[in-house]
Amino acid sequence: MTLTVSVLKMPYDEKLLSSLESIIASDPIADTLYLALKHKYYSVYCHCVNVSCCTYLLATKMGLPEQECLRLTLGALLHDIGKINISPKILYKPGKLNKEEWSVIKRHPVNGINLLNDSKLYHMVADSIRYHHERYDGSGYLEGLSGEDIPLAARIVSIGDCFDALVSFRPYKKILSFEEAIEELIKSKNTHLDGRLVDMFISIAPDFYKHHYHPTYFPLSVENSNKNYSKFIINEDSELEINWEEILDQLPDIGIILIDRDDRILFCNNFAAKLRDAEPGELIGKTIIDIQRPHRRIVVKEKLAKVKSGQANGWERLMARKGRYIENKYIKIADEKGCYSGMLMLTMDVTQGEKLLRMLLINLEKLSILAQANIFLKKVFDLEDTLNNTAALISKVLTLEKLWLVIMRNGEINCFQEGEQPLNDNQREELIKKCEKLVQNGLQEIIIEKWAGSKRIFIFLESGDEFKGFLVVETKGTMHIEQQEQDLLKVIGNYVAYAIKKLLFISRVGKFGNERSINESLQ
Ligand SMILES: [Fe+2]
Ligand SMILES: [Fe+2]
Fold first, then answer.
1. Given 20, 101, 281, 416, which residue has the most CB atoms within 10 angstroms?
2. Residue 285, Cβ density class (10 Å: 0-12 exposed, 13-18 middle, ≥19 buried)
3. What pLDDT, in 10s, does the model give residues 324-341?
């Protein structure tokens, strides 16, 4: 596969990142893993973006050919993809890891290349993933390679990897200043890192740190905070048990309004309504202009037009009633064809100053994921696509014969099947009955049972009021399923559950572009 180089000769910015992401999106396996990582471990995703930026700057500084720069940057963006099936309890453990936990962490490079084995990007990124924890003096893992035996791609990635870890928050260490981090890099010359590359990196490090570095946020635990915001910040420990609707409804200091392409309000949470002395129900259906005070109407109209056409970045700060300061952020939403289909408007009360603002911005980062509709809504709405990707991933773990998705919601049962032979009515009924029984028994685990010479594996999709469901996988009868494979199936199950929950949430909140009803999507 040849990479297009049109994205090169540009600073590492959102445009380059989105070009890299569209290369990833062209490959279903890499794309599914990348999106799953982004939504499961947002902090690891931010780290990968930082490392890929360092890699881009360093590779360009070294004068490597353009294709090579792009290849290495892409490898860096995926270097920690294998962390996706590490438990958050280990990944975010604040103290020292025990021997067993450490051995789980050390598997992530090999997990990564195994997961990407059938991806067409594999050959471009394998070195960066497999060898990024090798050390120059041979003391690293996986293979204990040393010096120039370590592929150049991995030696470059490990410098960004190291620098980003030093200047960022990790549960087990303090954040180092820029100067302290550079000192550490110098100490690692020719022990941990390739000294010649460190020297080159030091010359571009100020540019990276000043202009490109994104702080990575880790989940805050409730105990660490006396504010009740923390419980609304997505807690990655909860293994994706995220109820977006609840979060949006209850965020104490972020007003959320969702408008359609005609500026009509589709959704409004309590805080947004309170700011306007109203109840949410009174505002839904009106236009966003209607609910402004008279002197704001023209201003808001102009602002919306500018944001829609891309002339404004969507931020505004204003003084509200009773001496309060309000910040608004308008986030455009596009449908799957990329056409404008509405806007998410976030209102924050920033009267209490910067600290609060920072807390709210953390929320905002998370919420903007919801609104990053171009790629994401497509994934959410196209359940078939999600399931096909899931089938491709499961096939990497097991010899997959058949895959079904069974969802029980509001007393209705939907059954989706991947593959050629549809279930006949009896088989369908039988499968659904079995799933109902498992739900009644409160099943939370993976269940494996014999089925007419094959095996059936029921992967429980996260329970909740919204839906209960299963991925049902049929495999060859002799298959033995290891703990690690079970863990991975659980991760895949979580990813599917997450996509479905978003689908259910968004379809309840409002009608977008080409939205199909849930029943249609699932049949
Ligand atoms: Fe790593
Ligand atoms: Fe890393």
1. 20
2. exposed
3. 667 777 877 765 456 677
Superfamily of domain 380-522: GAF domain (3.30.450.40)
Most confident listed range (121-125, 342-346, 409-413): 121-125
Dihedral angle computed from the Cα positions of residues 138, 144, 146 and 148, in that order, rounded to the nearest 10 degrees = -160
- CATH (residue range 14-212): 1.10.3210.10
Ligand nearest to the CA of 43: 2
Nearest to 255 by CA among 271, 279, 233, 267: 271
User: ω into residue 142 within 30 of 0, thus cis?
Assistant: yes
- Average pLDDT of the residues in 16-32: 84
CATH 3.30.450.40 in the chain is located at: 380-522
Q: What's the 3-state SS for 71-140?
A: HHHHHHHCCCHHHHHCCHHHHCCCCCCCHHHHHHHCCHHHHHHHHCCCCCCHHHHHHHHHCCCCCCCCCC
C-alpha of residue 109 to centroid of ligand 1, in Å: 7
Other Cβ atoms closer than 10 A to 196? 13
List the shell of residues around ion ligand 2, using CB closer than 5 Å: 80, 161
CA distance 160 to 166: 10
Of 59-68, 237-246, 406-415, the range with the lowest mean pLDDT is: 237-246
**Cα 133 to middle of ligand 1, angstroms:** 6
Tally the residues of the chain: 523
Ligand nearest to the CA of 133: 1
CA of 340 to the centre of ligand 2 (A): 36
For domain 241-371, give the CATH number: 3.30.450.20
Token couple for 72: 């290495």
**Maximal CA-CA distance, the chain:** 73
Q: DSSP H helical segments within 208-296, as ranges?
A: 244-250, 270-275, 280-283
SS3 380: helix
Q: At what angle do helices 108-115 and 122-130 cross, to 10 degrees?
A: 170
Q: What letter would DSSP give residue 318?
A: E
